[in-house]
Amino acid sequence: MRAKSKLRTVLIILSNRFAPLASPRHLELEVTEDGSILRETPLRGKPREARFDEVWVNDEGRKTMVDCNRFKRVYRHALEKRKE
Fold first, then answer.
1. pLDDT tens-digit profile of 56-76?
2. pLDDT for 9-31, tens place per residue?
3. DSSP assignment of 7-39, as one string?
4. Domains: count for the chain
5. Range of the domain at 5
6. Contact predicate 58/12, CB 8 Å
């Protein structure tokens, strides 16, 4: 029997650099250690507390994560959990 793998919670922010007044979309992903996405949940707004293991941003102005070509990892983001 396989040991249960550790799950990470990832925040994806889809923004538009060409229309900075447009509100960004936020997605919450549950990801395994090997990068497989188990669950994708769209959030209604910007999260209020720092509860994510990683934060990734795309600023191409796309509507969904599937349409995006690349993502940038944001280190020390305000919504990222602090490692103590």
1. 999 999 999 999 999 999 999
2. 999 999 999 999 999 999 999 99
3. PEEEEEEE-BSSSTTSPPEEEEEEE-TT--EEE
4. 1
5. 1-11+19-54
6. yes
